[in-house]
Amino acid sequence: MTRFGYTLMTEQSGPKELVGYAVGAEQAGFDFEVSSDHYFPWLESMGHAGYAWSMLGAVAQATERVELMTYVTCPTMRYHPVVVAQKAATMGLLSDGRFTLGLGSGENLNEHVVGRSWPLVSVRQDMLLEAIEIIRALQSGDQLSWVGEHFRADSAKLWDVPSQPIAIAAAVSGPESIERFALVSDHLIAVEPKPELISGWDAARSPLGLPPSRKIGQIPICWGPDKARATARAHELFRWFGGGWPVNANLPTPAAFEAASQFVRLEDVAASIACGPDLDELAESVRPYWEAGFTDVALVQIGDESQDEFLTAVAPALLSKLRAAAG
After folding, report:
1. What was the pLDDT predicted at 26?
2. Distance between CA atoms of residues 101 and 279, nearest Å
3. Could you tell me where the DSSP H helices lie in the chain?
4. With b meaning 16 or more CB within 10 Å and e meaning fewer, what string describes 274-295?
C-alpha cells in the first residue's frame, strides 16, 4: 500500500512554525515527514530558509510515530560527508530509529555560498558516490582516514551511533544516476512519476538479491477554499517548479529563479499543480506516482498561511481519499 507523507518546507515557513506543523501532520495521520535542506528559498517571496537539522532535532522530540527524512541533503559542498554522517547518526538516536538520510547531488542555489565553483553534473554525482561511501563507513563507529578523489578525512569517528545503520535514500533522475546509486543506497528518491525510474532501479538491484527499496516521490498541491486564490498563491510561491531539474539545479540565487520564472502564467501553474478545494482533484493529481510504482509520496501544501487549516480540517479527509484510491 502507498504511504503518504507531509513536507516540512523550510523555504516557506519559519523553524518554530515547522515544528508545530510536524506535530499537526502526525496528528492528521501522515505516515512520514520529509524536510527540505536549503540555504536559500527558491523565490524571495517564500521568505525563509532555516537550518533543517536543528528543526528536525526538535521535530524528533515533538513527535512519536512519524518517520523523518531529509529530502534532500547534499553531502558534498556546503556539508562535508563526515559531518553529514554525524548529523544522521544523531538524528537516528534522537528519533529512536525513525530517520532516513535522503541524499542528492545538490543545487547551485544552496551550495555556491561556500565559495566553490559549481561542478558539472557528472562530477557532482561522482562526489555524491564518494560521500555515500564515507558515510557508510563511519556508521560502523570505527575510525576512518580517507584520501579520495574529492574528499579527505583524518581519523574521523562517530562516538554516538544507532544500533542499526541509518538507511540512505538517493535522488535519481535517469539511467546514469540509477547505475551509480542503486547498489550503494537503500531507497530511491525521484521528483517525477516516471515508471522507468522504478523499473530501472529494481532491475539494477534484483540480480544481487538486495532487499526491496522504498521509492519516495514528492508532489506540490495548493489546497484552499477558493480555487482562484489558491492558484494565485501557487503562482506566487511555486512558479519556479516547472523549470525542470536541469534548470533548477544550476540557477544560483532566488533572483535568478525570479528572472527564469517571470513569464510563467497563472494558467501554466494551474495546469501543473492541483489547486483549490476539490479533494478529489487533489487526490487524483497524485495518482501518477502510485501507478508508476512509488511506495511513498510526500505532499507539499503550498503557502505558510494555509498550513494549520490544511492539517486540521483537510488532511485527514484527503488522506482517506488517497488511501482508498491507491489501495
Report:
1. 98
2. 31
3. 15-28, 52-62, 81-94, 108-111, 121-138, 175-181, 195-205, 227-238, 245-248, 254-260, 266-272, 279-292, 307-309, 315-326
4. bbbeebeebbebbebbbebbbb
The answer to whether the beta carbons of residues 99 and 53 sit under 8 Å apart is no
For 30-66, write each residue's pLDDT tens digit. Answer: 999 999 999 999 999 999 999 999 999 999 999 999 9
Query: What sign has the CA pseudo-torsion 28, 33, 39, 44?
Result: negative
| All domains in the chain, ordered by first residue | 3-226+278-326 (3.20.20.30)
Distance CA 231, CA 78 (A): 34
pLDDT at residue number 246: 78
| Residue 290 banded pLDDT, cuts 50, 70, 90 | very high
Q: Among residues 11, 26, 33, 38, which one is catalytic?
A: 38
Query: Does the annotation count 107 as an active-site position?
Result: yes
pLDDT at residue number 72: 97
Q: How far is 254 from 216, CA to CA, in rounded Å?
A: 27
Q: Which of 11, 33, 107, 111 is catalytic?
A: 107
pLDDT at 238: 96
